[in-house]
Design a protein that fits this description.
By secondary structure, the protein is of the alpha/beta class. It folds into 2 domains: about 1-180, Glycogen Phosphorylase B (Rossmann fold, 3-Layer(aba) Sandwich), CATH 3.40.50; about 205-360, Rossmann fold (3-Layer(aba) Sandwich). The chain is built from 17 helices and 13 strands. A 7-stranded parallel sheet has the order 3-2-1-4-5-6-7, sandwiched between helices. A 6-stranded parallel sheet has the order 10-9-8-11-12-13, sandwiched between helices.
Length: about 375
């Protein structure tokens, strides 16, 4: 069986899809990954990848849409726009991807198309050739809702018409929906549960390999977004609060100016690129920008997290985590950092979510569900 795995042209969108792609490949199926942009720099292992977004600039599309819709742009930057700006941004992205996706499907002839919610161009190409689809949720947001919002945008409705599809009806429903979010965090979902798996690997300094509970002080990891924007870097605030917290603060990939400030500070250390999925279980807690990948990683590691509300889905993620009691949502303060490592209820709730995720079927257990569509 041939399986086409498609993500939007962003690394954070592709990485959560690779474990299922690898499981399908290991089961003997032919797998091709289609994406573009900075996702082309991701390590896809044994899976071949094709660029269907040559010349596409996400920054250009974002700037154009932000300028054209200033009120929605302002709401998006604070994480209060719902799906309005997402629909505009990813509607424009997918409109540019659609013709390339149709060409890939026409030439490679997959039997099944697996795509994430913000890669609806894949759904258009599959519908044109009457192929079954699998929707793989890759965040804490409801996947079908994102598909409806994006496919219903003005530009995507134009793309649907261009390829002979009924833009009023939108995309056909996927045959299978796979959800990786824990139900105790996001509520009931209609999809089949699949355990989120994040790939590790890479070097970890010897001092960081010592588990937090074996160290002199509890260790708080602080991570920032790979994309710039408001609230993307909680490290300056963590540094400002560090002197008042009896914990080891570890900054991951700090910007040069932040690293200079951290140099010589008591109980503050810095480290370059490290595999967060392998480092988080060695820590007592993590502070981050609210991105879904880091949030899911902390839930899988079973450690409390402080997620800073911000643009896009970051406020949504932070509020879900806080509502579950597995972490905090808000500004980085000394009080919040102290609570992260001292509040036993936060730690217990985080461990409960980890147990919930470990009980979900792994990606290889969902291979038969995909193969049955052939």
């Amino acid at each position: 069986m041939r399986v086409l795995v498609v993500s939007a042209p962003l690394t954070g969108h592709l990485l959560p899809m690779l474990p299922l792609g690898e499981a399908l490949w290991e089961a003997g199926h032919d797998v091709l990954v289609a994406t573009g942009g900075d996702a082309m720099n991701a390590d896809t292992g044994n899976l071949p990848v094709i660029d269907v977004a040559r010349g596409l600039s996400f920054a250009r599309i974002a700037a154009r849409n932000m300028a054209a819709h200033p009120l929605d742009a302002r709401a998006e930057l604070t994480g209060t726009a719902g799906t309005r700006m997402v629909a505009r941004l990813f509607g424009a992205v997918n409109e540019e991807l659609t013709d390339g996706m149709v060409t890939v499907v026409e030439q490679w002839r997959p039997d099944v198309v697996v795509h994430e919610p913000l890669a609806v161009a894949a759904g258009v190409a599959a519908a044109r050739y009457d192929l079954p689809t699998v929707l793989l949720e890759n965040s804490l947001f409801d996947g079908p809702a994102l598909v409806r919002a994006t496919a219903g945008s003005k530009l995507m409705r134009r793309a649907l018409r261009r390829h002979g599809l009924d833009d009023e009806r939108g995309l056909p429903a996927p045959q299978v929906v796979l959800t990786t979010a824990p139900r105790s965090v996001v509520g009931e979902r209609t999809g089949l549960p699949m355990r989120p798996v994040q790939r590790g690997g890479g070097e970890i300094p010897a001092w960081l390999r010592v588990p937090s509970d074996a160290a002199d002080r509890p260790r708080i990891l602080v991570s920032r977004s790979t994309a710039p924007g408001p609230g993307a870097d909680p490290m300056p605030a963590a540094l400002a609060a560090a002197a008042e917290v009896d914990a080891e603060i570890v900054l991951v990939r700090p910007e040069p100016r932040v690293e200079r400030r951290a140099h010589g500070m008591d109980r503050v250390r810095t480290v370059g690129w490290v595999p967060l999925v392998d480092v988080m279980p060695l820590c007592a807690a993590i502070v981050h920008h609210g991105g879904s990948g880091t949030a899911m990683g902390a839930l899988s590691a079973g450690i409390p997290q402080l997620a800073v509300p911000g643009a896009g889905d970051r406020r949504h993620n932070a509020e879900l985590i806080a509502r579950r009691g597995a972490g905090l949502s808000g500004k980085v303060t000394a009080e919040a950092l102290h609570r992260l490592v001292a509040d036993g209820e936060l730690a217990a709730n985080a461990r409960e979510v980890r147990t919930e995720l470990e009980a979900m079927p792994p990606p290889e257990a969902r291979v038969p569900d995909v193969a049955a569509l052939d």
